[in-house]
Structure formats: C-alpha cells, structure tokens
Amino acid sequence: MSRYRGPRLRITRRLGDLPGLVRKSSAKQNPPGQHGATPKKPSQYSIRLQEKQKLRFHYGMNEHQLVNLVKKARRAQGSTGERLLQLLEMRLDTILFRSGFAPTLRASRQLVTHGHVQVNNARVDIPSFQCKPGDKFQVKKLQTVENAIQLGSVIGMAPPLHLQSDKTGLSGQVKQLISRSEVSCPVNEFLIIEYYSRKV
After folding, report:
1. Residue 60, in any domain of the structure
2. Of 141, 131, 132, which is closest to residue 166 (Cα–Cα)?
3. For helices 44-59 and 8-15, what crossing angle results, to 10°?
4. Cα–Cα–Cα angle for 109, 120, 116, nearest 5°?
5. Domain match, 79 and 49 both
6. Positions of the chain with pLDDT under 50
7. What is the DSSP string of 122-185?
8. What is the pLDDT of residue 153?
9. Domain co-membership, 59 together with 112
10. Please, what sign has the CA dihedral across residues 166, 172, 173, 177?
11. Long-range contact list for 140-147, CB < 8 A, 24+ apart?
12. CA-to-CA distance for 139 and 19, rounded, in angstroms?
C-alpha cells in the first residue's frame, strides 16, 4: 500500500509536529509503543532515517516517489538537499496547502485529484505537477476551501514570500522559486541526502 492510512497522531508523537500530515496535536508526549517512555539512545542510522520519515509523512509520499525526487535533485545544479526541498515545495498540492486553501497536504491532494484546481486556465488533476514562477492557479468555491481559509485566518497563517494568494477570488500566483528559509517541513536535508547516499 503506497499511502499511509493509519493513525496520524501516532506519527506526530514519534517524529514531532508535521503540519502537512495533521493539524491536531496529541495529549500524550511520549513516543508510541511499549518502550516509548524510556527511549534508547538513537544510532546515527536511526537519526537519518527519522529525518527521512519526517519528509515522507509531511509531504505524503511513498518511498519510490522520494527516491525519484532525490535522483532528480542530484542531476540539478546547486545543493542537492535544497533542490530536493524546492522540488517538494513547488508541487501543486504543496502550493495550495501553503496558500491556505487546504488544511493539510492530504486535503490539498484531494482537491487536485477531484479536478477542482486550474493552473493557467487549464484543469490539472495531478498533485505532483511542478509549478514554475509566473504560474497562476484558481480553486473552485467549496465549503472545505472556505473552512481552510477561516482556519488559516484564526491561527494567523500567512503564505510564504514566493506565493501570492487572493482569498476572496480563490486564486494565487507563484512569484518565484522558494528559498530554504521558507520551507515548511522542519528537517535537516543534509541528513536525508546522507541516508540516500548508500541506497541511490
């Protein structure tokens, strides 16, 4: 099974807050499992594995998709880690989530696959569609979108600098490529590249 369908709060207890996975927070502080209250000292491998899992669950990707993105980031110029995060943040589902039109990345992906999003006046139903600077997007007026906009205004969530969004017109535009400081997922990308250096 490619997508994780289990309890999401269990993942956040183990890996920390992942806003792309779930907005809720668990009342329990210990990691899940029988020995969660008395964790062992993590090995170097487990530290890198945990960083990779943060990235995977935050963006809702399977291992095969992530490996392909790492290969693509290696072929590009510049830092492989930053290029990987840039590829993930410039996906259409991530851009909708960061613009405030969906409460989580899973909800954003559902908006795209159900055909409720247009990019440059053409319907796009592929969540992994790579947006470029200058692309304009439009979202259909739905109750879930309005609820997400209200939630974003309550918690004071503002879109990052590389995006421009119009909440009344349910539209937005990609102004530029995202910078490393604007990435939403709290990960160390260098540890992720080190993890994949043995496998890819």
Report:
1. yes
2. 141
3. 140
4. 35
5. yes
6. 1
7. EE---TT-B--TT-EEEE---HHHHHHHHHHHHHT----TTEEEETTTTEEEE-SPPPGGG-SS
8. 59
9. no
10. positive
11. 140/116, 140/170, 141/170, 142/111, 142/116, 144/102, 144/107, 144/111, 145/101, 145/102, 145/111, 145/116, 145/170, 147/103
12. 21
Give residue 11's identity as a one-letter amino acid code: I
Among left, alpha and beta (phi > 0; psi -120 to 50; other), residue 2 is alpha
Residue 5's pLDDT is 77
* Single-letter amino acid, residue 163: L
Residue 126 lies in a domain: yes
How many degrees, rounded to 5, is the angle at CA 33 between CA 30 and CA 36?
A: 35
The structure's pTM equals 0.85
Task: Give the number of domains in the chain.
Answer: 2
80 and 102 both lie in a single domain: no
The Cα 106–Cα 59 span in angstroms is: 8
Is the dihedral angle over the CA atoms 115, 118, 124, 128 positive or is it negative? negative
Tokens of 59: 């963006």
Look at strands 136-139 and 122-123 and give their pairing.
Answer: unpaired
Whether 101 and 138 map to the same domain: the answer is yes
pLDDT at residue number 1: 40
